[in-house]
Specification:
single chain; 121 residues; alpha/beta; Transcription Regulator spoIIAA; five-stranded mixed beta sheet; 5 strands; globular
Amino acid sequence: MVDLTDVLYVDGNVLIAEFPEGMEMTDETFAKVNERFEELASQPAVDTHISNLQMEASLNDDVFTRAQEAAEAGKQFGITDWIIVSGGIKKMALKSKVGEISGVDISLVDTKAEAMELVTA
């Protein structure tokens, strides 16, 4: 199991989720990720979320469902800007699913550095 303090953390006003290569993609893991997400999202300064998808495995329906749950939870805490970092089609697939959540604005970038530039722009 990946240490969630390394996976989800706050940097300034940004809640960052680093999904590393080899991360277990189980219901139990994503339930814990979403629990940690909600803990961090409640911090008053947080208004943006970055999902940095580093894993090579394809995303499945459970991942999409958990992402939608996180987007809904984030909205409750005022997080309406999501930046998805990934190469290839993975970010497009996640955008299409999270984009189904009304009131969430999504940006797509290739690197975490680009994501952080968007936050400070």
